[in-house]
Design goal:
The complex is a heterodimer of chains A (583) and B (367). Chain A starts with a helix and ends in a 5-residue tail after the last helix. The radius of gyration of chain A is 25 Å and the shape is globular. The longest helix of chain A has 34 residues, at 376-409. Chain A has a domain at 78-266 and 275-359: MetI-like fold (Orthogonal Bundle), CATH 1.10.3720.10. Chain A has helices spanning 2-9, 22-49, 66-72, 77-108, 115-126, 129-140, 146-154, 169-193, 198-205, 210-221, 223-239, 242-248, 256-266, 272-296, 321-348, 367-374, 376-409, 415-423, 430-443, 452-476, 481-488, 493-522, 527-530, 538-547, 551-578, and strands at 13-14, 17-18, 51-55, 59-63. Chain A has 583 residues and is mainly alpha-helical. In chain A, the strands form 2 sheets. In chain A, strands 1-2 form a two-stranded antiparallel sheet. A two-stranded antiparallel sheet of chain A has the order 3-4. Chain A contains 25 helices and 4 strands. Chain A is 70% helix and 2% strand. In chain A, helix 11 (223-239) packs antiparallel against helix 14 (272-296). Chain B folds into 2 domains: 54-169 and 288-326, D-Maltodextrin-Binding Protein, domain 2; 170-286 and 343-364, D-Maltodextrin-Binding Protein, domain 2. Chain B is 40% helix and 17% strand. Chain B has 12 helices and 13 strands. Chain B has helices spanning 2-22, 54-67, 81-94, 107-119, 133-138, 208-218, 220-234, 242-251, 262-270, 300-310, 313-321, 352-364, and strands at residues 72-77, 99-104, 127-130, 142-143, 165-177, 201-204, 237-239, 256-257, 260-261, 275-278, 283-294, 325-326, 344-346. In chain B, strand 1, helix 3 (81-94) and strand 2 form a beta-alpha-beta unit. In chain B, helix 3 (81-94) packs antiparallel against helix 11 and helix 6 packs across helix 7. Classes of the chains: A mainly alpha (583), B alpha/beta (367). At the A-B interface, helix 5, helix 8, helix 13, helix 17 and helix 19 of A face helix 1, helix 3, strand 2, helix 4 and strand 7 of B.
Chain lengths: 583, 367
């Protein structure tokens, strides 16, 4: 309703008069589009959670509470919830801590080789979750994991297993955190990059240590970014499936998603209703999360670090500690990225999964790479994934840039609900979004079925929350006085947005764009419903290759994908340096 | 950081340009075409066992499809990508004027997709091949159709009502790592209690059909007692996915599976992995690869042709070469005699409630 009101009333409102302005129409259209994209799957989610198929010569959907019983009345519900909470909270805390620490080192200090962190984070981020999890199982299996074998060859440890054990809650937390920290890194980097150093300088002049300044000032002012990262990562932890399935199930650590996945596989026909019933819980978590986020950040001006006062970004001189920081960063990159990628590369060079050893070397082969590079579907899948992810990310950034402005810069009633609406999809299982999009465009008279665009629509819906949080964080950092000065000088809204706001919001928007491109590449659950014979996607090809038992071929797909993207990124970086694209 | 972000954006722009220059544009949807008015040539009734002219029957359908303007056929299947590629190349050589559009997904995703498309009144599949195709038949979406070669497929691998037939099966055997045990170490399920298997046994977490076979052979109480005894003595690690189990055995993380699909073990064995398999009698047979034809197929003649093709000599020979256990009695398994002498029991297709009850009992064994 607020969106409709906005579209009709316009942004500029004179006393006792209402004008429809172009910017009002634009903003209203953005809000309406988001409402359309989100309300359809939310409605479908609620409906599906109360329905099950009855197949007796025809397709019937019957009302039932069985989906909720299956999802929530497991005999071991308390222990399942306890495991889920430990995993999601632990993974979230680890990912945020790693991401924030690395972002601070890269953006606020003079640590050498810090640029490597960005490449390392981007590369880790693009690695498919299935492969990363399998890599860690290969590395840290307590009995035969490569890391354990190496450590035991140097240290006289008791027993015959360990010291690392990936088959535990701690192991699961590590795998999740070490793979998902780039999301927190991107969010925090955008926050730190645009921070006025005056606040930190004032803290240091008052006698505070570096760590105290970091804790009380830097992180304090970046609270919206910290909360956004924490919220996104907590929900991703709760809905995570790959780590719990590959590590949790064999280790007998049931998580809510694996219990529901198991039930969904058991019930015939397959019931999206069980996933929907679970999604209601996620939606509730998302609503509560946004509520607390809004409460914590409602004093927007307190978090504005970009004001009318000019400043130059300044890096903290760590002195000798910069070498310690560099060593820590390099060690982390080796452990979190180099080791898993080496493990994946090793697996890809054999016909069957083989533990690393000298004795295995005669079995090395490039068969999997020959398959990957000559299979036409894989090339087509990569192209489609690239075009789709770039398109989806661009649409999300533009939409949420507009809607975040409505939420944070206007007093329109219902703007808080708009914020919730844009964030709601994070609580809807991607499977449900896929099915709802499929059904919608089978019913509506738009010839989108089987095209790339239908997948893009689903991805835009799925990744709206990420764009919304990052756009909000970016906007919170900019003090409204800058726009007010532009208005007072006679600038229109569009001119003020384009010439004053946009340049300051770019770091946040680019962070959102990169985050969404990476997530879109990896998205599977919705894509699998919407891909067609001619519009294939790399996430689906890779997952189905792995699920078919061809883990070595799937590893080769992952390595090729990563290599191509890294080469492109490196090329762009070199070109950027060549033409001196300024900081 | 700003330049890095810009660089990444730059990279993506370059990638877009390269992708646009080199790649194909996403094709339009294979929207359902108008139902052909041409009558189909092949009989809908199961052929008599024995002789029939396969090539002539296929040509008749092929000509009917081409004359009706059917230029493509949509195959929804859970056959893996590496198997499907060469299979569809065989199709392309035999039927060059009809393009096979292959949509690959898991059983669950395929059935969900088909049911959703039906609800949207836009049937898109011509032929569905997966382990749970009978559900789509239960939904009233299948055509009553058997290929002429159906007489060569055992009765228990076909729907008595005539809606589906199987093109391959999964057999439950014991897969083991040859560096950790010998074939003679296990001759019965009691041998899983030996101390050498402590912490070395894996089982798929949804192995309900095998469990049904154990109940059929030993009775409910004895089957449960046996599995619990193995679990308590040596431990049973549950793994999600037969492919992952195969990886775990190949890599030596575990020594032996309580049960595994023989095609998984055979595939690894043919790739010279240190694995082998043995059968504990009776061998439970999981029917798999059920083919149905959509009763509202967008390309009705091509749909029947595809169904016939999947049960044809050339397709069955190809599947056998990939380690699949095929269903036609006149096409030898590979290697010949692979499953000779094995006493089998075919798991019946259960109703949804029966399946749920079985799953509940199975899960209770490990809680």
């Amino acid at each position: 309703m607020a969106a409709i009101g906005l579209a009709w009333r316009g942004v500029v409102r004179r006393r006792h008069a209402v004008r429809i302005t172009p910017e009002g129409v634009l903003l209203g259209a953005a809000a309406l589009l988001i409402a359309y994209l989100v309300l359809v799957p939310v409605g479908f989610l609620i409906l599906s959670s109360f329905r099950r198929y009855e197949l007796a010569g025809s397709i019937k959907l019957i009302f039932t509470l069985d989906n909720y019983r299956s999802a929530y009345l497991s005999p071991h519900l308390l222990s399942v919830l306890g495991n889920t909470f430990q995993y999601a909270v632990g993974g979230m805390l680890l990912a945020v801590a790693l991401g924030a620490a690395l972002a601070w080192i890269v953006e606020r200090t003079n640590t050498p080789l810090r640029t490597l962190v960005t490449f390392g984070a981007a590369a880790t981020y693009l690695l498919p979750g299935v492969l990363v999890t399998l890599a860690w199982v290969t590395l840290a299996n307590p009995r035969i994991g490569s890391l354990n074998q190496i450590v035991r060859s140097f240290l006289p440890l008791p027993g015959t297993s360990g010291p690392f054990d990936v088959n535990s809650i701690l192991g699961m937390v590590w795998v999740f955190g070490a793979h998902m920290y780039p999301i927190a890194y991107l969010i925090m980097s955008a926050a730190f990059a645009s921070m006025d150093p005056a606040l930190e300088e004032a803290s240091e002049l008052s006698g505070a240590s570096i760590l105290r300044t970091l804790r009380r000032v830097t992180l304090g002012v970046s609270r919206p970014a910290v909360l956004s990262a924490g919220l996104i990562l907590f929900v991703r932890g709760v809905e995570s499936l790959e780590v719990p399935l590959i590590i949790g199930v064999p280790a007998n650590i049931p998580i809510l998603t694996t219990e529901i996945y198991s039930d969904a596989q058991t019930v015939q026909p397959p019931e999206p209703g069980i996933s929907a019933a679970f999604g209601i819980l996620l939606l509730a978590v998302a609503v509560i999360g946004v509520y607390f986020y809004q409460r914590a950040t409602n004093r927007a001006r307190a978090f504005a670090t970009i004001t009318g006062k000019a400043y130059r970004p300044r890096r903290l001189d760590l002195g000798r500690w910069r070498w310690v920081a560099m060593a820590a960063v390099l060690l982390f990159l080796v452990v979190s990225f180099v080791l898993p990628i080496l493990s994946i590369v090793w697996v890809s060079l054999f016909r069957f999964v083989t533990q690393p050893s000298i004795a295995a070397l005669p079995g090395l082969t490039l068969t999997n790479y020959h398959y990957v590079l000559t299979y036409p579907a894989i090339v087509n899948a990569f192209q489609n994934s690239l075009v789709n992810s770039v398109l989806a990310a661009s649409i999300v950034v533009v939409l949420t840039a507009l809607v975040a402005w409505i939420v944070l810069r206007t007093r329109i009633p219902g703007r808080g609900a708009l914020d919730w609406l844009a964030f709601a999809p994070i609580g809807i299982p991607a499977t449900i979004i896929g099915i709802s999009v499929l059904l919608t465009y089978l019913t509506l008279p738009f010839p989108l079925y089987g095209t790339l665009l239908i997948v893009t629509i689903a991805h835009v819906t799925i990744f709206l929350p990420y764009g919304m949080r990052l756009a909000s964080d970016a906007l919170l950092r900019v003090h409204p006085e800058l726009e007010e000065a532009a208005y007072v000088s006679g600038a229109s809204w569009a001119s003020s947005y384009r010439r004053v706001l946009m340049p300051l919001l770019v770091p946040g928007f680019v962070a959102a764009w990169i985050t969404i491109v990476g997530l879109s590449f990896r998205e599977l659950s919705a894509t699998i419903f919407l891909a067609s014979a001619d519009t294939r996607f790399i996430s689906v090809v890779m997952y189905t290759t792995w699920a078919d038992g061809n883990t070595t071929a799937a590893a080769a797909v992952g390595v090729v994908l990563l290599a191509v993207v890294l080469v492109l990124a490196l090329g762009a970086w070199l070109i950027g340096r060549r033409f001196r694209i300024a900081e | 950081m700003g330049s890095a972000f810009r660089s990444a954006s730059f990279a993506m722009v370059i990638a877009i340009v390269l992708a646009s220059c080199g790649g194909s544009t996403p094709a339009a949807s294979t929207a359902p075409s108008a139902t052909s008015a041409a009558t189909t040539a092949a009989s809908a009734a199961p052929a008599a066992s024995g002789k029939y002219d396969e090539a002539a029957a296929e040509k008749q359908l092929y000509d009917a499809a081409v004359n009706a303007g059917e230029k493509e056929v949509n195959l929804y299947s859970s056959i893996n990508e590496q198997e499907a590629g060469p299979l569809l190349e065989i199709w392309a050589k035999e039927f060059p004027k009809i393009k096979a559009n292959f949509i690959r997904a898991s059983e669950t995703a395929l059935v969900s997709r088909v049911l959703t498309e039906a609800q949207g009144h836009k049937p898109n599949f011509d032929v569905l091949e997966t382990t749970t195709s009978q559900l789509v038949a239960d939904a009233g979406l299948a055509l009553k159709y058997f290929p002429p070669s159906a007489g060569l497929i055992p009765a228990e691998l076909k729907d008595p009502k005539g809606y589906w037939f199987s093109i391959y099966t999964n057999w439950c055997v014991v897969e083991f790592n040859t560096t950790k045990m010998k074939k003679t170490d296990i001759t019965s399920y009691q041998d899983f209690l030996k101390p050498q298997f402590k912490g070395q046994i894996v089982l798929d977490s949804t192995e309900y059909d095998w469990y049904a076979g154990m109940i059929h052979e030993y009775g409910q109480d004895k089957a449960d007692a046996l599995i619990k005894q193995i679990r308590d003595t040596n431990g049973i690690t549950l793994i999600n996915g037969h492919g992952t189990m195969n990886d775990d055995i190949s890599s030596g993380q575990f020594a032996v599976t309580l049960t595994q699909y023989v095609n998984q073990a055979e595939r690894s064995k043919r790739q010279k992995a240190p694995v082998d398999w043995l059968a504990i009698q009776p061998v439970t047979v999981i029917t798999s690869g059920k083919v149905i034809v959509d009763k509202d197929a967008p390309h009705p003649n091509a749909a029947k042709l595809m169904a016939d093709f999947l049960a044809s000599t050339s397709a069955q020979k190809y599947l056998a070469s990939r380690g699949r256990q095929i269903t036609r009695s006149d096409v030898p398994q590979e290697p010949p005699g692979l499953l000779d002498g094995l006493k089998t029991w075919t798991a019946p297709v259960l109703t949804p409630s029966e399946n749920q009850a079985l799953a509940k009992k199975f899960k209770a064994l490990f809680q």
